[in-house]
Amino acid sequence: MEINKQANGSKLNVALSGRLDTTTAPEFEKELKGSLDGVTELTLDFSGLEYISSAGLRVLLSAQKSLNAAKGTMKIVGANEIVKEIFDVTGFSDILTIE
User: Fold this and answer.
1) Residue 9 belongs to domain spanning
2) What is the CA radius of gyration of the chain?
């Protein structure tokens, strides 16, 4: 998995490529948690993400809770059909903002 971050004031854009699973989720969680201080607008670009597991979903839920506490927003853009189907089946489509 590859993580590319771009910060612009209180906005953070994170682009992921590869697989977000039990092997890579801890690295993503560490990167994300270390970058969320002062962030009120988080955009996750999943156009390069091939797959997401329950471990990856847990990281997304944690990030959403952090942003909710900071009165911020989080959105996911560019998810492929496989990832969108995982969001639908798990009910995450109702919890997260997916564009």
Assistant:
1) 2-98
2) 12
| Max intra-chain CA distance, the chain | 35
Interval 20-67: pLDDT, tens: 999 999 999 999 998 999 999 999 999 999 999 999 999 999 999 999
CATH code of the domain covering residue 90: 3.30.750.24
What are φ and ψ of residue 10, in 5° steps? -90, 5
pTM metric for this prediction: 0.94
Phi/psi at 52 (5° precision): -135, 135
Q: Domain tally for the chain?
A: 1
Helix (H) or strand (E) holding 16: strand 11-20
Contact 90, 53 (CB under 8 A): no
